[in-house]
UniProtKB/TrEMBL annotation:
GO cellular component, one term: nucleolus
Source taxonomy: Eukaryota, Metazoa, Chordata, Craniata, Vertebrata
Keywords from the UniProt entry: Chromosome, DNA damage, DNA repair, DNA replication, DNA-binding, Nucleus, Transcription, Transcription regulation
SMART domains listed in its UniProt record: HMG, Rtt106
Protein name per the record: FACT complex subunit SSRP1
Organism of derivation: Certhia brachydactyla
Ranges of biased composition (kind: Basic and acidic residues): 532-544, 634-645
């Protein structure tokens, strides 16, 4: 037979809540480790008095009773594991694992038995229900009636707050059954009563959570925080850990008390009590006990008269009363020589302390993460600046903590610490990469998929691509529409014919008149394309190739219907979350298959994009040339109409000398000549119809066009 038995996903019932963890049975005893808090319950084999196997809501359960009256309940076993457990108990603990079934008749009349820390309500020999007396917060009596009040369970949606028992009168003289019932409950109940004097009192201590100044009264079994508005009574049994942490300024000290269950202020729960002390503040303390009592109770850990720093006195008294070690920072030293790192968690700035067995962040909100519950850590690039980085921690339960805005100089020290503790680093690389380039930081979503972040990245890439496409398109249009060489040639071609016609007629003033419209036409031609430039940025070309999808998006499109069929009625948000979990759990080989498909799609996209860009450039050039030609023809037709009268007169003159004599014309003559342009056009058309004279320079220019 094996010397040990181990069970995962076992639930321990503590004060009405079910805490999951791991159970280990060995020759020495029973050990249960809470997955949430890391607290370990160790039951020695010599202390076990009874073991009971029974059917419960989560399958089958094991109830262990010790010789000093404590009861431990563990649920989540399978029915087939009874034989293995029964044989193990016989061989190593010399105990019979008894089978007892609960009574399910539904009767409310029975007998009450007090056994250790349990109140058991039985019908016959079968128990109906059991109440751990440590859950009782108050016990009151009435006529033939006892009322039990319970602590509120913060982990449950619905909590049982009160139970009333009717106790019938008995004929025995001198014994009140109601009072006897109440005394049995109160002897084991978790009822805090501030009776007697406090061992010592610390006045006006600064408390960060809950915020304010409190008087701390130290009693033998609990701690009393007395403030102006609120009072808290904290049993020492709820204290999990004690921390003493130096502030970065080396002038202050944090004293942190971890609590489970937490203290409550309205709907707010405080899992940590954080006190802030100045190193310069001293105190002389006298315990409210005689020296013999102090020696007997604390065995030299405390003395009746003590003096020293205030934080040392508080931590020393708490250590002696709670009987737990005080955790201090280990060998870690940051870039500035401090034992902590300045960072931000959520919206507040604070200090992160690397400890020997975990991390603790103070102070708002306080966070304690043990190494054994960390799945991996991740060094990520800072979101706002390259002078800082983020430190991410993900636990085995899937909870992620991101400590941001850590100075870049802290990277080497923190990396060495994490590496020495053998924590799994998600984006492990060369440490020197930080010194060479900050881009050596891997993306925090390299292996873990976040559906929302993936979508944001895709949209960002599309926007960036659109911006690049629109800037390229506008640049091409500007180059093709504005070409100084071509533009000057067009102007020269258009107005040279008019200039030759005017020179043949010897009209010097008309030559000056012709040059003015040329300047106007050039200005108009420059301005028109620039007005149309923003039109290319209005929208994306629908004929452009679509961007390729990432490996995850290809897999999601192929697997979406399967996920819907496996989870009928799943919402879009839950589907994205579920898809992210499946992608994260997928093996590396399967991911590589989708990476290859994504790479093929990317190559096809680049090839199609090259073909599209070549075609779009050719179309834009053809469109610009056709527009130029059309504008040129319109201006030539307009120029012909304006110069027709002068051209017809110069062509009909026989001798050049006669033309030279008529070269001077007044403004009135020019205006009257232009006003009769319609008649001149009619005469020219008749002359052209009657005979075909030699082609003028005007005709040759139009033919060349």
């Amino acid at each position: 037979m094996a010397d040990t038995l181990e069970f995962n996903e076992i639930y321990q019932e503590v004060k009405g809540s079910m805490n999951d963890g791991r159970l280990r049975l060995s020759r020495q005893g029973v050990i249960f480790k809470n997955s949430k808090t890391g607290k370990v319950d160790n039951i020695q084999a010599s202390e076990l008095a009874e073991g009971v196997w029974r059917r419960v809501a989560l399958g089958h359960g094991l109830k262990l009773l010790t010789k000093n009256g404590h009861v431990y309940k563990y649920d989540g076993f399978r029915e087939s594991e009874f034989d293995k457990l029964s044989d193990f108990f016989k061989a190593h603990y010399c105990l019979e694992l008894a089978e007892k079934d609960l009574c399910v008749k539904g009767w409310n009349w029975g007998t009450v038995r007090f056994g250790g820390q349990l109140l058991s309500f039985d019908i016959g020999e079968q128990p109906v229900f059991e109440i751990p007396l440590s859950n009782v917060s108050q016990c009151t009596t009435g006529k033939n009636e006892v009322t039990l009040e319970f602590h509120q369970n913060d982990d449950a949606e619905v909590s049982l707050m009160e139970v009333r028992f009717y106790v019938p009168p008995t004929q025995e003289d001198g014994v009140d059954p109601v009072e006897a019932f109440a005394q049995n409950v109160l002897s084991k109940a978790d009822v805090i009563q501030a009776t007697g004097d406090a061992i010592c009192i610390f006045r006006e201590l600064q408390c960060l959570t809950p915020r304010g100044r409190y008087d701390i009264r130290i009693y033998p079994t609990f701690l009393h925080l007395h403030g102006k508005t609120f009072d808290y009574k904290i049993p020492y049994t709820t204290v999990l850990r004690l921390f003493l942490l130096p502030h970065k300024d080396q002038r202050q000290m944090f004293f942190v008390i971890s609590l489970d269950p937490p203290i409550k202020q309205g709907q707010t729960r405080y899992h940590f009590l954080i006190l802030l002390f100045s190193k310069d503040e001293d105190i002389s303390l006298t315990l409210n006990m005689n020296e013999e009592e102090v020696e007997k109770r604390f065995e030299g850990r405390l003395t009746k008269n003590m003096s020293g720093s205030l934080y040392e006195m508080v931590s020393r008294v708490m250590k002696a009363l709670v009987n737990r070690k005080i955790t201090v920072p280990g060998n870690f030293q940051g870039h500035s020589g401090a034992q902590c790192i300045t960072c931000s968690y959520k919206a507040s700035s604070g200090l992160l302390y690397p400890l020997e067995r975990g991390f603790i962040y103070v102070h708002k909100p306080p966070v304690h993460i043990r190494f054994d519950e960390i799945s991996f850590v991740n060094f990520a690039r800072g979101t706002t600046t390259t002078r800082s980085f983020d430190f991410e921690i993900e636990t085995k339960q899937g909870t992620q903590y991101t400590f941001s805005s850590i100075e870049r100089e802290e990277y080497g020290k923190l990396f060495d610490f994490v590496n020495a503790k053998k924590l799994n680093i998600k984006n492990r690389g060369l440490k020197e990469g930080m010194k060479q380039s900050y881009d050596e930081y891997a993306d925090s979503d390299e292996d873990q998929h976040d559906a929302y972040l993936e979508r944001m990245k895709e949209e960002g890439k599309i926007r960036e691509e659109n911006a690049n496409d629109s800037s390229d398109g506008s640049g091409e249009e500007t180059d093709s529409s504005f070409n100084p060489g071509e533009e000057d040639d067009d102007v020269a071609e258009e107005f040279d014919s008019n200039a030759s016609a005017s020179s043949s007629s010897g009209d010097g003033d008309s030559d000056r008149e012709d040059k003015k419209p040329a300047k106007k036409a050039k200005i108009v031609k420059d301005r028109k394309p620039r007005k149309k430039q923003p039109e290319s940025k209005k929208g994306k070309d629908p004929n452009a190739p679509k961007r390729p999808m990432s490996a995850y998006m290809l897999w999601l499109n192929a697997s979406r219907e399967k996920i819907k069929s496996d989870h009928p009625g799943i919402s879009i948000t839950d589907l994205s979350k579920k898809a992210g979990e499946l992608w994260k759990a997928m093996s590396k080989e399967k991911k590589e298959e989708w990476d290859r498909k994504a790479e093929d799609a990317r190559r096809d996209y680049e090839k199609a994009m090259k073909e599209y860009s070549v075609g779009s450039k050719a179309d834009s050039h053809r469109g610009e040339r056709s527009k130029k030609k059309k504008k040129k023809q319109e201006k030539q037709v307009k120029g012909k109409g304006d110069k027709k009268g002068a051209t017809s007169k110069s062509s009909s003159s026989k001798s050049p000398a006669k033309g030279m004599s008529d070269s001077f014309k007044s403004k009135e003559f020019v205006s009257s000549d232009e006003s009769s342009s319609a008649e001149s056009k009619k005469e020219d058309s008749e002359d052209e119809g009657a005979a075909s004279p030699p082609p003028s320079s005007e005709d040759s220019a139009s033919a060349s066009d």
